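ok trying again, last paste got cut off:
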Amino acid sequence: MKLFQLNIILALVVFSFSGTGAMGQETVPKEERGLWVARQIDREDEGFVNQVSEATMTLRNKQGQESIRRMTIKSLEVDGDGDKSLTIFSSPRDVKGTAFLSFTHALEPDDQWLFLPALKRVKRISSNNKSGPFMGSEFAYEDISSQEVEKYSYEYIREESVMGSEGHVIERVPVDPKSGYTKQVVWVDGANWRVGKIEFYDRKGEKLKTLNFEDYKQYSNKKWRSSRMEMTNHQSGKSTQLIWSNIKFEQDLTERDFDQNALKRAR
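nice, full thing came through this time. structure:
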């Protein structure tokens, strides 16, 4: 499922959809409608091939103090499995050259590695640490991999207007018991299958974070991408904003650009 742009883990754990509208949902049994929505989202983003973009990440603490990080993100669509992504930080100086590589899988734990230039070594991210913060942000490691349909079970909640169109609210529950979330509630635009908002609930069942998607743009390949994302942590008062720019598709990328050696070559 090609959802998060950080990828995003974004994708950064990108949701970006174009769609078939709400037609046909009347024939889907209610108990299957949540899964049906998820499959529409997945189907409509297939075929993006690869993506290169730049992003500015702004971290804000409870007092409103900010720190800014800039990065380049490359993503590769993989047939029969989750996507691959490589995130390379270019500033500030203390994180410059840091690189994050993610291989998302549908039914198995994701493979993720972090290259730390100061130590000149690659650190593998344990699946037990997937709920940990990514580079000090309010995004967790599990937020920034592509969100494959098989990673969740689904329930349809209700119809509701989303971004000015008739839309859907669905609940998805992570299949992985090591997830940091008990559930996520997702608001989806039924006209173009764009996600407007996701609410994340912690292991105690309490609302932890909300991710809002804004300023969508449709590109020449008919794929939609959000230009602005804001993750707000309701428990800590912190937030992280992502501003996307220079998004390009079908670039000269191969599997070699996403192997572990690519982490050390990253600039």
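cool. The first strand starts at residue 50 and ends at 60. The radius of gyration is 17 Å.
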